[in-house]
Amino acid sequence: MRRIFIMGATSGIGLAVAERLAAEGHTIGIAGRKDEVMKNLVAKYPGNVKWEHIDITKDDAPDRMRSLIKKMGGMDVYFHISGIGYENDALLPSKEIATMQTNVVGFTRMVDAAFRYFRDKCGGTGQIAAITSVAGTNGLGHIAAYSASKKFQQTYLRALDQLATIQKLDIRFTDIRPGWIRTPLLDAGQNYPMIMQLPYAVPRILRAMRRRARVAVVDWRWNMLVGLWRLVPNALWVKIPMPVNSLASSRQAAINAAEATSGNARPDTTA
Ligand SMILES: NC(=O)c1ccc[n+]([C@@H]2O[C@H](COP(=O)([O-])OP(=O)(O)OC[C@H]3O[C@@H](n4cnc5c(N)ncnc54)[C@H](OP(=O)(O)O)[C@@H]3O)[C@@H](O)[C@H]2O)c1
Fold first, then answer.
1. Considering only CA atoms, which residue is closest to atom 44 of ligand 1?
2. For residue 227, how far is its CA from the centre of ligand 1 (angstroms)?
3. What are 77-125's pLDDT values in tens digits?
4. Spatial distance between the Cα atoms of 75 and 118, rounded to a whole number of angstroms
5. Overall pTM > 0.90
6. I want to staple 78 with a disulfide (CB 3.0 to 4.6 A). Which of 114, 120, 191, 214 is the partner?
7. Is the distance from the beta carbon of residue 55 to the nearest atom of ligand 1 less than 6 Å?
8. CATH number of the CATH domain containing 21
9. Largest CA distance in the chain
10. Which domain holds residue 66?
11. What's the gap in Å between 267 CA and the centre of ligand 1?
């Protein structure tokens, strides 16, 4: 049983991951801004779930992280799931900058704090896992800040991996890159290509975390697609419109909305 800190455990992927790990009996520390969601999970698993209100865009986030680690009795894995993203063809500064504040500044703040914890308090041993995205593998015009922020995360993890090796630390890094997953992050009124449901995606995400894969694309179809993306020369890439989604019918939109919420509560245990 490992002690796993889940940053961003109040919705979508993070909540489904937390539910599953808590049910398996791991000691988990859950963090985010939606206190009620966290209190409900603690009430369901009072023995092994601890929580803390953490906003990763705030300076006090690393102090709050240390406080939660104390409640957990230590940390073996830091799992960073928090993230936001918008389609923003208008390039509204509020959306582009908020994305950078959360996915770049907040990410760096928390991942660095986890690195220092493993270096200074655990004899240089531990695991830092993060959900980045296939969107980080190339620049995507409709979600420019999001795709660039995910690229930053991927490069930053790679840099810290090298730093850990230079400093002779046994810290493992796991960069999990899913394709689209139906969660509240996505617009319920839209359809997305090759979308996965949480009960399908979460076991694959957890498998990557457990086997401490350095990089894992979820799932195999997305792995093939990003492999193809890499072969496209830049001069051609910028000419591809690359739609992110298409309008769903009102009936499909209702199904999408229901799937986003029901998937949170019922991660599949069979996959
Ligand atoms: N859904 C997809 O298609 C998809 C695909 C690839 C990658 N991802 C990535 O997976 C991660 C989770 O996404 P999701 O789809 O599960 O979205 P979601 O349902 O919207 O969940 C986002 C999580 O991030 C947390 N968060 C956002 N801002 C935060 C802040 N300032 N401080 C602390 N926590 C914050 C939220 O918690 P609070 O609001 O409680 O703070 C929530 O728990 C994101 O990094 C996303 O980029 C998603």
1. 83
2. 25
3. 999 999 999 999 999 999 999 999 999 999 999 999 999 999 999 999 9
4. 8
5. yes
6. 114
7. yes
8. 3.40.50.720
9. 56
10. 3-265
11. 17
